[in-house]
Known about the structure:
Largest sheet of chain B: 5 strands, mixed
Number of helices of chain B: 1
Strand order of the largest sheet of chain B: 2-1-5-3-4
Mean pLDDT of chain B: 93
Radius of gyration of chain B: 13 Å
Order of helices and strands of chain B: EEHEEEEE
Strand content of chain A: 15-25%
Helix content of chain B: 10-25%
CATH architecture of the domain at 236-357 in chain A: Alpha-Beta Complex
Low-confidence stretches of chain B: none
Strand content of chain B: 25-35%
Oligomer: heterodimer
CATH architecture of chain B: Roll
Distance between the termini of chain A: 74 Å
Helix content of chain A: 25-40%
Largest interface: A-B, 40 and 35 residues
CATH class of chain B: Alpha Beta
Shape of chain A: globular
Mean pLDDT of chain A: 94
Shape of chain B: globular
Structural class of chain A: alpha+beta
Structural class of chain B: mainly beta
Number of strands of chain B: 7
CATH topology of the domain at 236-357 in chain A: Flavocytochrome C3, Chain A, domain 1
Bound molecules: flavin-adenine dinucleotide, FE2/S2 (inorganic) cluster
Radius of gyration of chain A: 24 Å
Distance between the termini of chain B: 29 Å
Low-confidence stretches of chain A: none
Amino acid sequence: MSVKMSYKIIETDIVVVGSEAAGARAAFEAQDQGIDVLVITKSKMAKSAVTLMAVATCTAPFNEKDSPEILLKDTIKGGSYINDQKLAKIFSEEACQAVLDYDKYGTNFVKKQDKYVQFQMPGHTYPRGCLTEPIGTTGRKMVRALHHEANKRKIKILEDTLVFSILINNGRAVGVLAIDLQKTEVLVIKAKATILATGGGMRVYEKNCAAREATGDGLAMAYRVGVNLRDMEFVQFFPTVMISPKNLFGQQGPARLRYELNAQLINFYGERFMYRYDPLRGDKSTRDVVARGIYTEVKEGRGTEYGGVYMDVSYLPDKVINTFIDRHYPRFNFGGVDLLKEGIDIRKEPFEVTPAVHFFMGGIVINEKTTTNIEGLYACGEVAGGVHGANRLGGSALPEMGVFGKRAGKFAAEYVKDLKDTIEINIKQVNKEIERIERLFERPEGPNVYDILKKLQHVMWQGAFVIRSAQSLNSVLSEIECLRQEYQNVALKSKSKNFNLELKTALELELMFDVTEMIVRAALLRTESRGSHYREDYPEKNDQKWLQNIIISRKAEGMQLNKQPVEFTIFKPEEVNDEYKNKKRKN
Amino acid sequence: MMNTKTKNVKIKVFRFDPSVDQKPYYDEFNVPYDKDETILAALHYIRENFDSSLTYRYSCETGCCSICSVRINGKAGLACKVKMLEEDIVLEPVKKDKVLRDLAML
Ligand SMILES: Cc1cc2nc3c(=O)[nH]c(=O)nc-3n(C[C@H](O)[C@H](O)[C@H](O)COP(=O)(O)OP(=O)(O)OC[C@H]3O[C@@H](n4cnc5c(N)ncnc54)[C@H](O)[C@@H]3O)c2cc1C
Ligand code: FES
């Protein structure tokens, strides 16, 4: 059977790929500049993706004692000194405005006497985390507000539309190629400027706490057209999310019991294993050490039924637990997770936890105007890298989306206004890309796409997660290559053109191979441990050699990785470091 | 990951692809029962092991987005929150007149 697919051309000034925090904010700003904008999401706005999952806070230095400069220093220290300082400075200076903007759209952050109520998160010198009520709803309230604002503004949104390629002509981005999944109709979106706001790629890992959309499409699409990416080796994980019962997978609230109520971590054999990894602090060790401890226990066969370990407070007298719960989590409700109602009584039994992937620090290289190295192409939000360096502080993603989303909208609009010449689509590229889809429909039988996806997620989890080594990474690399080969023969069971989600997954999976390869190659090259990246064969941080970023680009001969020394345009590591040492001494 | 337990549960799933089917029908699958697993996990299991064309929506898998709403034995609920039942299960779209394909609605 030969399928010849036609396509429809849609023209717009700016196309924004991604409809959540970063994408929506970009679209509003572009519209405010009087520019025609089209937003695309591969699912449904405000009913999918990662922004709505944000359970905690949104950082901004509103406190009287606080300042953007202190937030900048905290961010650079948290990022182990390899942040893009110019971007981190903008983030710190504009975070308050981002919160005010989100609030203006109707997020409704909690206030007391006209001041935002702010929580202190680890790594932040002052309480900076704005949040909504009930606790745990920050992301949900935010996406609802953004959706409402988008409707009010009559922003054009294409839902269930997967972008699978960036269109390039004469070295310039001229729009994107998308597929309307409800009809399997190819859309050539011709745009004077393209903004990528596609989020992170946490779903390339087996255990992640992100939404289905987080497959890193934007990272790979950008890579494929020659965009530079940075810091791809830095993948943030949460040390302890719930793993069982399955309807609570990914919940982080109850895991606070580890430091708030001396919860013990116990393996399948009942051992308090953390003392093997940190003889002094044991269960109270730092996030990284706890994650590595749990991961090692599971890998060496001492894990629980669902591949985690137990977190237990039941050794404490009921009276102690009840008093603590009444004070902090009335009725055993941990920010929306109602443990008793779910059938877990922590006074009597433990629950299972695991580390899981949470955030991508790395991403597309952008400048202060969110411009990439390709003319006409902008990136903002989690898909862009640099602000957070080697690790991100809690609550610092949401303001980043607002700050750089707004900038992307503004600068892309300015670019469009100044553009003198018209843009043309390269039909050859369009036809070549469409052939990829046709091949998927033509192949009568072959491997199942979900099967290959699962294998890819598993090998990434096994060899490129919280503990890495040259050996594990090389083995992941060769597995990725095998799976890529297997993918060449993948077939769709259903050839229906009606909402074919197998097709969607197949197109995403093809991009995920590039995302995983970038992570693994960068992790291999960085022969030290820093931030979220831990090499068991190079367990120490090496400032002599590695105050550098790894920049990835695509060249004719394949994936290129180049080291680039960090530019300390604002602070030198010593300056930041000394200040924290002094602070400690004073305390 | 679904744990292999001996007991199976029969799951009847509403199927309808308006572009090819004259009218809706039901498919039956035997899925290993696990008291800790969710309806969504059962759907994933079917998709991975029996029929990769089974179409349903999901996103956060933690009860935040509500895109996974389905009718479970007649009652609407979130597939990612409702646990598997030990009895026969019938899964249908929440609104049959809004079906895009199988359990996925417009
Ligand atoms: C469980 C969890 C809790 C968190 N809690 C917090 C918190 O408390 N505070 C905080 O600051 N941060 C938190 N974060 C991080 C933060 O939520 C995210 O970094 C942020 O929301 C990302 O926003 P975004 O707009 O860049 O991407 P997303 O919200 O992921 O949106 C991506 C958009 O791009 C679209 N898209 C992707 N690929 C394509 C494609 N190929 N074609 C078409 N559309 C596409 C998606 O459909 C979606 O519309 C949390 C993250 C997780 C996982
Ligand atoms: S997948 Fe989001 S609520 Fe079920």
